[in-house]
Amino acid sequence: MANLVIDIGNTALKASWCDGVTIGRTFRYQGEKMMDFILSIIEKEKPDIMVLSSLRNFSTQNINKLESCCEKLVIADRVIFEKYSIPGHLTPDRAASIIASRYLFNGRDCTIFDFGTTMTVDFIDADGNYSGGNVSLGCRMRFKALNRYAKSLPLLDTPLEITENGYNLSTSIESGVISGMMFEISGYILQHPENVNVFTGGDAIYFAKRMKNSIFVVCNLVLMGLALIAVEYDRKD
Fold it and tell me: Does residue 233 sit within a domain?
């Protein structure tokens, strides 16, 4: 049997079967029946260790149900992450990304960008110590905010391409949002030019393709961090 890691964020659920740190078959679900989806994944095969990271609360009943479906259930929470010297105020996905970055880029300073519902930027030094981080609006959230708080502006989606300067209302919004994020990202990179720049999250590839700097895109960074937690628990047993 293998381990199963599950990350439930603001928008979607991502899960993967893992053999040690190696990420295997992955799943993605966006909907309200997340518990049913998890149970469907483990219907035919029970994992040895299941690591669950979630921004949503699970009832005691559902936790008990998951515990009955695996050898060991690990809830990735503040108590777990304190053992990795990660501050308790960080969300589980950010904490898991830090664990994975320590493993992948051991001995290097890192700037970790996560492009999801929000855009988070976290820093670790060459010894793996957390040096702080920031949170701002994600790409789609910026488009939605313009539409919601400026009644005359339309709701637009992330464009495939942008012009340097907009030539009408739509292209002005598209260029303003994407260029603004690019300037923001570039600012962090210029602030720490010696750091390894790690991009993850749903929009990671979109922005990585537009960067002139050297970027490492690790789409499953959070899942890898959770897989490393599973490996640690496997060793304890």
Answer: no
